[in-house]
C-alpha cells in the first residue's frame, strides 16, 4: 500500500494529475473517493478496496473528464478497469494523455470468482500477479446444454428481470446518451418483465465492448447470469473477427468499420 | 395449436437495389413463392440492425430473411460488409441462448436473380415450417 500511496503522492505533488480516483474507508465501507493536493493528508486513508468490493471507477472518471476536460487524473485500476480504459480510449470517451493508471493486481480468489483471463493491469503498484483463468466454465456449461434446455433456462432468467436498468447504469462501458433499451420503437414500454429480447439487445451492445468486470451481475437484483451472456458475446467477437476486447493492441471494434475484405460467408440454407 | 396447421410468419428485410429488385423480377416473371413472407424494403442490408431482427422475433416472427447485394455489388460499395458481420454474430448469439440460429438467414440475391429469390423464399419457408413456431412466441403465449 505504501508503494501505491507514494506513487500517488508524487503524481499529486508534481501536479502531473489534478486528482486521484481511488477508494477510502467511510464508516466501515470502502467508497470511491477523489484525492487531491489540497487534502493530501487524506492520502493516508487511501486504500485498495478489500475483498471483492468494487465500483465502476471508469464510469466516475468519465464524469470527471467531461467536467474538467483540461485536467489529468490518476485512477486505481484492476485488470478489468484498464481494459475499460483502453476500450473507452478507442470509443473516444477518454483521452489517454490525461489518464494515469495506478495498477492493482487481483488476488487469486477474485480471478477465480470472475473467471478472469487478465486479472492484472499493465502497471502493478499493489498486489502480485496470480494465475489467469483462460476458459470460462460457466460459458462452457451453457454451451453443453441441449438447445431447448438452454432456451428454457435463459427464458427463466429473463422473466425475472424487473427492468431496473441496474446493469446498464453500473456499466462503465455504457456511455450512450440515448439507450436502445428505452427506445419505444425497439422495446415495449411499461411492462415487467420486459420483452424477452431485452437482455439480448444489451448483449449485442456489449459484444466487443464488455470488459468483463462483472458489476452488472453483482448489481442485478434478480441474479440474471448476465456475465455469462456477455462473456459469450465477447468470445464470438474474438472467434469471428479476431477482436480482443479491451486490448490496446487490436485496432478499433469490428462494429466501427466496414473492413477491407469480407472473410465470412452466409451460412447455407 | 395442434388442430390448426402451422403457417410460418416470415419477415424479409430486402435491400432496395438488389434483393428487392430480384423480388420484382420474380414477380414480373410470374414465379410462385409462398405468401408467408412479409417484405420490408430497406435502402441497404447494412442498415438492418440486430435490433430490427430481434424486434421481429419479439413481435412473433418465426423466421427472418435478410437479403442483400452480393459482396462487391453493394450500391453503397461496402454496406453489406457490415451486414454479414452483424448477421453471423447474431446467429451465433441466438444459438447460445437456445434459439435455432437457422431462423435467421442471410442470402445475397442480385436484381437479376428472380428465380433464386423465389427458390430461397420457398426453401426458407419450408425450413421454418419444419422447425415449427418460434419458441419465443410460445414463451409469450404461456406468459
From TrEMBL, chain A:
<keyword id="KW-0408">Iron</keyword>
<keyword id="KW-0479">Metal-binding</keyword>
<protein>
    <submittedName>
        <fullName>4Fe-4S ferredoxin</fullName>
    </submittedName>
</protein>
<feature type="domain" description="4Fe-4S ferredoxin-type">
    <location>
        <begin position="201"/>
        <end position="231"/>
    </location>
</feature>
<keyword id="KW-0411">Iron-sulfur</keyword>
<dbReference type="GO" id="GO:0046872">
    <property type="term" value="F:metal ion binding"/>
</dbReference>
<dbReference type="InterPro" id="IPR017896">
    <property type="entry name" value="4Fe4S_Fe-S-bd"/>
</dbReference>
<dbReference type="InterPro" id="IPR017900">
    <property type="entry name" value="4Fe4S_Fe_S_CS"/>
</dbReference>
<dbReference type="GO" id="GO:0051536">
    <property type="term" value="F:iron-sulfur cluster binding"/>
</dbReference>
<dbReference type="Pfam" id="PF13534">
    <property type="entry name" value="Fer4_17"/>
</dbReference>
Automatic annotation (TrEMBL), chain B:
<dbReference type="GO" id="GO:0016491">
    <property type="term" value="F:oxidoreductase activity"/>
</dbReference>
<protein>
    <submittedName>
        <fullName>Hydrogenase iron-sulfur subunit</fullName>
    </submittedName>
</protein>
<dbReference type="GO" id="GO:0046872">
    <property type="term" value="F:metal ion binding"/>
</dbReference>
<keyword id="KW-0411">Iron-sulfur</keyword>
<feature type="domain" description="F420-non-reducing hydrogenase iron-sulfur subunit D">
    <location>
        <begin position="10"/>
        <end position="132"/>
    </location>
</feature>
<dbReference type="InterPro" id="IPR003813">
    <property type="entry name" value="MvhD/FlpD"/>
</dbReference>
<dbReference type="GO" id="GO:0051536">
    <property type="term" value="F:iron-sulfur cluster binding"/>
</dbReference>
<keyword id="KW-0479">Metal-binding</keyword>
<keyword id="KW-0408">Iron</keyword>
<dbReference type="Pfam" id="PF02662">
    <property type="entry name" value="FlpD"/>
</dbReference>
<keyword id="KW-0560">Oxidoreductase</keyword>
Amino acid at each position: 500500500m505504501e508503494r501505491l500511496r507514494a506513487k500517488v503522492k508524487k503524481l499529486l505533488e508534481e501536479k502531473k494529475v489534478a486528482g486521484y480516483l481511488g477508494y477510502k474507508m467511510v464508516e466501515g465501507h470502502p467508497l470511491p473517493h477523489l484525492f487531491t493536493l489540497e487534502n493530501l493528508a487524506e492520502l493516508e486513508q487511501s486504500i485498495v478496496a478489500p475483498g471483492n468490493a468494487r465500483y465502476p471507477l471508469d464510469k466516475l472518471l468519465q464524469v470527471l473528464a467531461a467536467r474538467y476536460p483540461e485536467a489529468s487524473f490518476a485512477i486505481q485500476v484492476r485488470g478489468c478497469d484498464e481494459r475499460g480504459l483502453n476500450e473507452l480510449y478507442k470509443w473516444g470517451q477518454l483521452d489517454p494523455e490525461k489518464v494515469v493508471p495506478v495498477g492493482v493486481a487481483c488476488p487469486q480468489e477474485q480471478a477465480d470468482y470472475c473467471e478472469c483471463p487478465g486479472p492484472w493491469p499493465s502497471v502493478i503498484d499493489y498486489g502480485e500477479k496470480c494465475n489467469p483463468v483462460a476458459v470460462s466454465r460457466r460459458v462452457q456449461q451453457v454451451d453443453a446444454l441441449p438447445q431447448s434446455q438452454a432456451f428454457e433456462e435463459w427464458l427463466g432468467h429473463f422473466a425475472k428481470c424487473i427492468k431496473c436498468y441496474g446493469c446498464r447504469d453500473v456499466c462503465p462501458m455504457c456511455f450512450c446518451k440515448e439507450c436502445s433499451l428505452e427506445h419505444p420503437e425497439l422495446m415495449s414500454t411499461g411492462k415487467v418483465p420486459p420483452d424477452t429480447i431485452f437482455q439480448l439487445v444489451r448483449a449485442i451492445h456489449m459484444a466487443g465492448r464488455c470488459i468483463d468486470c462483472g458489476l452488472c451481475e453483482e448489481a442485478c437484483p434478480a441474479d440474471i447470469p448476465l456475465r455469462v451472456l456477455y462473456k459469450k458475446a465477447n468470445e464470438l467477437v474474438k472467434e469471428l473477427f479476431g477482436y480482443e476486447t479491451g486490448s490496446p493492441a487490436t485496432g478499433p471494434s469490428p462494429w466501427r468499420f466496414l473492413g477491407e475484405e469480407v472473410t465470412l460467408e452466409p451460412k447455407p440454407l | 395449436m395442434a388442430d390448426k396447421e402451422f403457417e410460418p410468419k416470415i419477415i424479409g428485410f430486402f435491400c432496395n437495389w438488389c434483393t428487392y429488385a430480384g423480388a420484382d423480377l420474380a414477380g414480373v416473371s410470374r414465379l410462385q413463392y409462398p405468401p408467408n413472407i412479409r417484405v420490408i424494403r430497406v435502402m441497404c442490408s447494412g442498415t438492418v440492425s440486430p435490433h430490427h431482427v430481434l424486434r421481429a422475433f419479439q413481435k412473433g416472427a418465426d423466421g427472418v430473411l435478410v437479403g442483400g447485394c452480393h459482396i462487391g455489388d453493394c450500391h453503397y460499395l461496402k454496406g453489406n460488409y457490415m451486414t454479414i458481420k452483424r448477421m453471423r454474430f447474431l446467429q451465433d448469439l441466438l444459438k447460445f441462448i437456445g434459439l435455432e440460429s437457422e431462423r435467421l438467414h442471410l442470402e445475397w440475391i442480385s436484381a437479376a436473380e428472380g428465380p433464386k429469390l423465389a427458390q430461397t423464399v420457398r426453401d426458407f419457408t419450408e425450413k421454418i415450417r419444419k422447425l415449427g413456431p418460434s419458441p419465443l412466441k410460445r414463451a409469450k403465449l404461456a406468459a
